[in-house]
Structure formats: structure tokens, C-alpha cells
Amino acid sequence: MSEHLQVERDGALLTLRMHRPEKKNALTRAMYSGMAEVLRQADQDKSVRAVLITGSEQCFTSGNDVADFIQAPPTGLGSEVFQFMLALFEFSKPVVAAVSGPAVGIGTTMLLHCDLVYVSRDATLKMPFVNLGLCPEYGSSLILPRLLGHARAAELLLLGQSFTGEQAASWGIANQALADGAATLAKAREMAQRFEQLAPAAVADSKRLMRAPDREQLRRVIEEEGALFGQRLRSPEAIEALSAFMQRRTPDFSKFA
Ligand code: COA
């Protein structure tokens, strides 16, 4: 498994930690593959009752590795990132997230597919897809307008505006905002550990029922977004934006009609 992932077991709780501090936990293809594999195994393992996904107290994740986006862009349903998101989408047990510091791009998108989300008050969440010449992914274009209303979702998805953990909690993206990273992780762990005492099949049935009404529509939207995202990654707009990030400059979109 990727050296940038840490897996811990504490009773019935499996914790999956993104650990690539020198790149702010940017997600590589190897990390996505590892995370997908951990989830698939945890789903089969009866002794696991819940999974906790986290980063460090300083950073949840800066999103997809931008160098990977340039050198090895994901290609459709077989790609590592798609396999990870599919494993999360299909996961039958509760997934809890503990988020501190930046949660960028897929770092925010994945929270929409978790069951319980705890954030630090000053966490910074952001889906800067348009800023990178890209488009929303993994159902966020469906989920966010429904959850937040079109106007607020447009600020997040059409402007790529960032928001705090406190806002995420008040808007219903997160369950609760806590004082700092340590308090956030402690709360997420406490809530995730509750599943050890609960009836596992009842929890799994309840999760499936809660997700069922939107499931097929969501699956179609995810495929449509994925096809467009792949095209956009090869677009001149995205190439300009991704190169600008690597060169630490502001992208220049003035030349695009
Ligand atoms: N992919 C690849 N490298 C990344 C990265 C990413 N998504 N995010 C950060 N890094 C790298 C930086 O290039 C830098 O590398 P270097 O030290 O070799 O130059 C290192 O991680 C530290 O990042 P830096 O930007 O200096 O840290 P910061 O504390 O000033 O800012 C973030 C942290 C997370 C706010 C900022 O890095 C950021 O906005 N990254 C997001 C990139 C992005 O757009 N991701 C979404 C993809 S959809």
C-alpha cells in the first residue's frame, strides 16, 4: 500500500489517514488505489463497524495531486480516483470524517459521500474546479444545490469560493464545527466508536435506505460529470490553470473566448 496512507485499528473502528505532509496530503494515484482497497476490505471484514477518514491536524488534503493531473490525468471509470470514489459510494457501513485545515477539491467532494462529518471551526473547504478550468465531480453538481440552494451552491461551484468549517456545519455539509484539530478528531472518533455498540445490519439497512432515493440519479450525474471532467482536464483552460499552479502564478484566462 502507498507509503502516504496510514491505517489504524482500534476495536471495531478502522481509521484511514492521508499522510503526505510535504505536499499537504495531495492525493496521488497510489493513494487513491490504496484507499479504495482499504474500503473494499473493510466492507468485507465483519469486525469493522465504521471507518474514519482523516488527514493531519494541519491539513485534511489539498486534493488531487496537480502534477498527476498534468502528467497522468484520470481516464474514466477504471481510473484510481474513480475506483476510490466508487468504493466510498458503495461502502455499506458508516464513514465518518474528521477535517482540519484545508480540504480542497476532492477533499471537500468526498465529504458529501460520508455519513458524519466533523470539522475544525477554521478549516478551509474549497472546490476550485472552475478556477482550474475543470467542472464539479462525483455528484457535487447535484448534491450541493439540493443541500444549499442554487444561490449558495453557485458561490462554491461557479466562483470556487472557499468556506470555513463553521459555515460547513451551519449549512449542513458537516455535523459540527469544533475548536481545533484535536477536538475535531476526538469528537469524530467518539461518534464513530458508537457504531461498535449498535446492530450492524440495522445500521447498514438504514444507511442504504437514506441513500436509496437519489442513488440512480446520482450515479448518472457522476458518470456525466466524470466524462466532462476528463475532457476538461485536456482543455487549454485547464492546462493554463494547472501549469500556473505549478509555476506559482495566477492563471491568465483572458485569451479564451
Ligand atoms: N498537488 C500537488 N502539490 C501540491 C498540492 C496539490 N494539490 N497542494 C499543495 N502542493 C504542494 C505545493 O506545490 C508545495 O510543494 P513544494 O514545497 O514542493 O513547492 C507544497 O505542497 C506546499 O504547498 P503550499 O501551497 O506551499 O502550502 P500552503 O500552506 O501555502 O497552501 C494549500 C496549502 C492546500 C492551501 C495550497 O497548496 C492549495 O491551495 N493547494 C490546492 C491545489 C489544488 O488546486 N487542488 C485541487 C485540485 S482539484
In short:
Its EC number is 4.2.1.17. With 257 residues, the protein is an alpha/beta fold. It has eleven helices and nine strands.
Q: List unreliable stretches of 5+ residues.
A: none
Structural classification: alpha/beta
CATH topology of the domain at 5-179: 2-enoyl-CoA Hydratase, Chain A, domain 1
SSE string: EEHEHHEEHEEHHEHEHHHH
Largest beta sheet: what is the strand line-up?
A: 1-2-3-4-6-9
Summarize the main sheet: 6 strands, mixed
Main location: other
Protein name: Enoyl-CoA hydratase
Subcellular location: Peroxisome
Enzyme class: lyase
Descriptive notes:
This protein has helices at 29-44, 66-71, 80-90, 106-109, 140-148, 150-157, 165-171, 181-193, 200-211, 215-233, 236-246; strands spanning 5-10, 13-18, 50-54, 95-99, 102-104, 116-120, 124-126, 163-164, 176-178. The chain is of the alpha/beta class and 257 residues long. The protein has a domain at 5-179: 2-enoyl-CoA Hydratase, Chain A, domain 1 (Alpha-Beta Complex). Helix 1 links the parallel strand 2 and strand 3. Helix 5 (140-148) packs across helix 6 (150-157) and helix 5 packs across helix 10. The chain binds coenzyme A. GO terms for molecular function: delta(3)-delta(2)-enoyl-CoA isomerase activity; enoyl-CoA hydratase activity. It is found in: Peroxisome.
Protein traits:
single chain, 257 residues, alpha/beta, 2-enoyl-CoA Hydratase, Chain A, domain 1, 3-stranded mixed β-sheet, 45% helix, 15% strand, binds coenzyme A
